[in-house]
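Weekly structure sync, notes
Attendees: PL, DS, HV (note-taker this week)

Item 1: DeoR/GlpR transcriptional regulator
DS walked through the input record. Source organism listed as Siculibacillus lacustris. Sequence as pasted into the shared doc:
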Amino acid sequence: MASLKATKRHQVILATLGEREQATVLELSEMLGVSHVTIREDLRQLEEAGQLVRSRGGAIAIGDRRFEQPLELTRRSEPEAKRAIGRAAAALVRDGQTIIVDVGSTTTAMAESLDGEFFDLTVVTNGLNIALTLEKRRNSTIIVTGGTLRPLQHSLVAPLGTTLLERINADVAFLGCNGIDPRRGFTNSNVAEAEIKQAMIASAARVVVLADHTKLAQIASAFVAPLAAADLLVTDDGADPRLVQELRSAGLEVLVVPVER
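Item 1 (cont.): predicted structure, written out as tokens:
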């Protein structure tokens, strides 16, 4: 258990991030009058508690969507909703299909829900964690796209990240994203990830986007595709009905799944 002094430091650190959204180790060290080593340990403890994200030389506030967060952290956000969305997405898969499964916490939940006995299923993914989740599946072929590893998401991107995708014709691509907006379409926090998603869309006959309700009405930094590029959005019942209706009015089919909270 943290000492009283450490607890007070943690409160100051979180309050500072609440006001400024990010802070450096140097700034926090000078503010609190402790060493860089002490601040780094404070940040480590707070990150483990899911209260901030450590960055190079400092920390970022949770919920600041301008910054990409590691997969291990995003999996802690809305876990019940992601599991429900994952189950609904897995139920759309059919025997004999070739599917693409994108990186992300919600698509990981989908991979974990692919527990039925499929005949001759082929899964193409750029997520190493997803490939490992599915590697023991019987009657399935798991293909990893190749490319350059991004440890933050355990994903493979350019260079060479799109080469395989350009050579396949998938039945369905299941994609994640960081933002969905009726006018700005689907967006993501990382440009390299956005490029891979675009290649996945081009390689599939049908595109299904998986996103919990916190992604609706959000716009991330990298454009992925307009709403018309997707055939279906699967989200959860935490979504604002007005936002859902706005997306439907813009031409996007939306499946809202119930969540036991």
